[in-house]
């Protein structure tokens, strides 16, 4: 067969070294080079043309082959060998391949790199294609489109992170600022489906909160210049799609059709933008799943005012779920996560990413934690039971998509067993708090009949794939047991029939044998053959073949047994697949009850995790209300505290924070924090923000006492970073983030700012910091922490009543500085920068020179009584009267005396000045150098 691909009837070509598929022989020149397209090539091109934006995994036997540009891209991305396979239109065809058995491993790498993959399977046995003719190709088609937001495989998903597919729809207003954005996000691995509406100012923050893995936007929205910066900043894959998916005229009908309802009004009140985004989600899911209906919950609208708004920069600065380097280790979630299930970990991430602003909801969560913190025995039993509970919602999602495995059924069975045990334990507890009582009720409604069915039907050891068989428990199906017996015990059955024939005929040498031509047959010698050919045995033994030394017979029983043995393996697998389909269908039917039970387990897991943390790390229950309180007593940074404990260092120094209003109806305070580097200023700033997040997430906090009025928006500008790709320096990034804070922070916000203005000249930076504080005080009127090295700013506390000063305590000892890490009222009088520089290892000469310069600057400042640097600034000169007497000119800073020149140097320098280097040959230049050195030595 002259084809650029391996012959389909043969299955696949033999693998090349390294496990890659290769051609058995390249296509000859001739028709292919002349422009002829072979049947296999035509099939590939047709399927690829229908999926141009996807890497095509083209199934050929035991391999997924990739060709042309797909092969080039994949070989580079996966680090696999790129080969070539025949010719097409006169050009070599690039090719690489991956074994089907390892396809998930390669899919994971491609998806992580942002590729989308179309999986094209063989839809018939190659033997069937062979019956249609020598040149017939195996029927193939794409059975699935794999994208970052639509994966469901267990080994491709992060157990502790939701896999959100998000769509953004825009409804234009009279101006860009008036535009409304609808957000819809779904996790098809769990069925979660939510909606929200936002505006341009909140869009980036909401995207950071949801943290999707893939974002769908209409082509024209993707190309919008105003939104391009938003798309560029996303960690997720941003997928531009046809505007038809965002058609507002048909959105409600498409959404209703997906859920099988005439109208979506029964789902709740959705805005037009939310409905369009939701319709885009279901359309994309239908497209990628190719007719298989993913199990999605009815969409639920999420009010924008119900969660704390945290913008992307603040999330990065506070390292809530990952560090600045992208690692989980070192983040807040890593420090406080005591959950023991994947579903519990995902719920914890969700609550930390979207802390509630609804006091009643926060209190419900805290009541559950408090209950378990008090009842340590129940908490320990609950924790142990949860450890045996596998994830149920993701296996349920795979089963709904007909992508499940026996292990998914096993996970449901084990999960339901844990549900029953936990429900029984909670039934015995009295006066459960509301959240735990609701969880108990959901567990009680779990399908326990299904649990019994799965336990009776499934074997103890389950294979990864249903095609492997062996997952149905012995004794569940009599027909299956018989087929298994035939398949596994064929030798014993043949031996038993052979013994029966020997006893009946009296011929001890009679044997039942097998070859590829006759199959099973009765074999005996020519001497004994006459006995079998004579009545009455001749009625049973049918002659088949006579050889020189043997005669062969068959019987009806032997032929029947042979047929049953031959088909036993296939029949056993077929019966097991029927059982699997039945169990999967019953499981999907009970999907809603299973999902509710799984969600209840996740809630209980988060609650016990916080209770466990409270007991081991000394966390306390916060008091959260609707006021503007913010009082932390003995607060600690959860991540730093654990790092110190892990490294065996000093105990963490706890500190208080008071940002509440000074009067009942007043606004919160603004604290200006001064003190040395390494004193703990940034740690204190961050820990208070993290305590607010933990409290509103419904967890206990690392403090002796905490009273917090709900924070609706949290802003943090801590640390230095640049954005060179967008032409932004460190200072520019600082100013952009500060501008966002000053433009958006409100009275109920919490603002944390560190070293604003330090990235530019002293006077510029001080002026910016001064003006920013005044704006926070007068316009934003929010609770704020402002750390700075501009000690001049502490003067604002004397002029503005909401502003107070705090500083980091230090102690000097024999010329060294000891950092006490204590935050106390007052202002620092110096920064101890030179001491910190010495600790960092700057050369001793640099340290001594710095000390000399500092002493002279301080002496100059002392000779100007009544004046400070701030009084020299035009911006602030009106705040104090000018000095009556002119101040003396400062003396120049003394410099070390220049070292004396060695004898003979003056003469050598004169000769050197007289030289004309351009007129010298190399030899003359070398001789001149020797003369100069000689004069210096003589001197």
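^ structure tokens above, recovered residues below v
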């Amino acid at each position: 067969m002259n084809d650029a691909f391996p012959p389909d009837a043969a299955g696949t070509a033999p693998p090349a070294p390294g496990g890659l598929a290769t051609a058995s022989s390249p296509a000859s020149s001739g028709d292919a080079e002349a422009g002829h397209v072979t049947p296999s090539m035509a099939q590939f091109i047709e399927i690829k043309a229908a999926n141009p934006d996807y890497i095509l995994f083209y199934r050929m036997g035991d391999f997924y082959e990739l060709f042309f540009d797909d092969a080039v891209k994949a070989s580079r991305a996966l680090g696999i060998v790129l080969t070539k396979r025949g010719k097409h239109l006169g050009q070599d065809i690039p090719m690489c391949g991956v074994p089907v058995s390892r396809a998930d491993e390669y899919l994971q790498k491609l998806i992580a790199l942002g590729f989308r993959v179309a999986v094209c399977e063989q839809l018939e046995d190659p033997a069937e294609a062979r019956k249609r003719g020598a040149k017939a190709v195996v029927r193939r088609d794409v059975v699935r489109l794999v994208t970052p937001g639509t994966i469901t495989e267990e080994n491709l998903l992060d157990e502790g992170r939701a896999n959100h597919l998000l769509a953004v729809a825009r409804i234009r207003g009279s101006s860009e600022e008036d535009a409304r954005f609808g957000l819809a996000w779904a996790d098809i691995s769990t069925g979660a489906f939510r909606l929200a509406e936002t505006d341009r100012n909140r869009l980036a923050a909401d995207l950071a909160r949801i943290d999707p893995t893939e974002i769908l936007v209409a082509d024209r929205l993707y190309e919008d210049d105003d939104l391009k910066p938003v798309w560029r900043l996303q960690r997720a894959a941003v997928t531009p799609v046809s505007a038809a998916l965002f058609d507002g005229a048909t959105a409600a009908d498409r959404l209703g059709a997906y859920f099988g309802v005439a109208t979506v009004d029964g789902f709740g009140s959705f805005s037009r933008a939310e409905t369009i985004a939701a319709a885009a989600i279901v359309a994309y899911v239908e497209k990628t799943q190719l007719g298989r209906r993913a199990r999605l919950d009815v969409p639920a609208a999420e009010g924008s005012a119900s969660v704390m708004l945290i913008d992307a920069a603040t999330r990065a600065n506070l390292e809530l779920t990952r560090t600045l380097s992208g690692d989980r280790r070192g983040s807040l979630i890593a420090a406080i996560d005591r959950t023991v299930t994947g579903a519990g970990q995902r719920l914890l991430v969700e609550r930390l990413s979207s802390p509630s602003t609804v006091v009643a909801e926060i209190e419900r969560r805290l009541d559950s934690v408090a209950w378990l913190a008090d009842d340590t025995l129940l908490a320990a039993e609950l924790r142990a039971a949860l450890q045996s509970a596998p994830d149920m919602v993701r296996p349920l999602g795979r089963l709904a998509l007909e992508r499940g495995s026996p292990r998914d059924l096993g996970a449901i069975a084990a999960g339901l067993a844990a549900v029953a045990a936990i429900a029984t334990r909670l039934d015995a507890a009295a006066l459960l708090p509301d959240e735990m009582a609701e969880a108990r009720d959901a567990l009680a409604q779990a399908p326990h009949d299904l649990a019994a069915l799965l336990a009776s039907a499934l074997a103890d050891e389950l294979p990864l794939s249903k095609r492997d068989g062996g997952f149905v428990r012995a004794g569940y199906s009599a027909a299956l047991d018989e087929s298994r017996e035939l398949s596994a015990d064929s030798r014993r059955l043949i031996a038993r029939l052979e013994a029966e024939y020997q006893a009946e005929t009296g011929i001890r040498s009679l044997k039942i044998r097998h070859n590829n031509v006759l199959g099973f047959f009765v074999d005996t010698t020519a001497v004994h053959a006459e006995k079998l050919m004579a009545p009455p045995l001749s009625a049973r033994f049918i002659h088949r073949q006579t050889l020189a030394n043997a005669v062969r017979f068959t019987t009806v029983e032997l032929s029947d047994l042979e047929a049953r043995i031959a088909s036993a393996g296939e029949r056993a697998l077929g019966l097991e697949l029927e059982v699997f389909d039945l169990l999967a269908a019953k499981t999907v039917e009970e999907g809603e009850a299973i999902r509710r039970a799984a969600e209840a387990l996740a809630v209980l897991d988060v609650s016990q995790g916080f209770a466990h943390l409270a007991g081991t790390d000394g966390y306390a229950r916060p008091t959260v209300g609707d006021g503007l309180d913010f009082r932390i007593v003995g607060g600690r940074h959860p991540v730093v505290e654990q790092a110190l404990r892990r490294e065996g260092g000093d105990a963490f120094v706890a500190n208080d924070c008071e940002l509440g209003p000074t009067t009942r109806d007043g606004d919160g305070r603004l604290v200006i924090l001064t003190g040395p580097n390494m004193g703990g200023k940034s740690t204190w700033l961050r820990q208070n923000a993290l305590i607010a997040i933990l409290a509103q997430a419904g967890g206990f906090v690392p403090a002796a006492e905490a009273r917090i009025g709900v924070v609706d928006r949290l802003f943090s500008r801590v640390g230095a970073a640049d954005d060179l790709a967008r032409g932004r320096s460190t200072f520019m990034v600082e100013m952009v983030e500060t501008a966002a804070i000053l433009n958006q922070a409100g009275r109920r916000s919490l603002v944390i700012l560190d070293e604003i203005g330090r990235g530019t000249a002293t006077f510029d930076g001080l002026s910016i910091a001064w003006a920013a504080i005044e704006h926070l005080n007068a316009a934003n009127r929010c609770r704020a922490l402002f750390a700075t090295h501009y000690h001049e700013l502490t003067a604002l506390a004397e002029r503005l009543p909401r502003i107070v000063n705090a500083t980091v305590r230090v102690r000097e000892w024999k010329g060294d500085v000891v950092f006490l890490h204590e935050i106390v009222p007052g202002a620092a009088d110096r920064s101890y920068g030179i001491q910190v520089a010495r600790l960092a290892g700057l050369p001793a000469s640099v340290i001594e020179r710095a000390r000399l310069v500092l002493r002279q600057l301080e002496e100059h400042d002392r000779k100007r009584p009544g004046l400070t640097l701030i009084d020299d600034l035009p911006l602030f000169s009106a705040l104090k009267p000018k000095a009556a007497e002119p101040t003396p000119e400062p003396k120049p800073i003394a410099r070390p005396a220049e070292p004396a020149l060695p004898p003979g140097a003056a003469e050598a320098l004169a000769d050197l000045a007289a030289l004309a280097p351009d007129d010298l040959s190399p030899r003359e230049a070398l001789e001149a150098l020797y003369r100069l050195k000689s004069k210096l030595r003589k001197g």
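The two ends are 96 Å apart (CA to CA).
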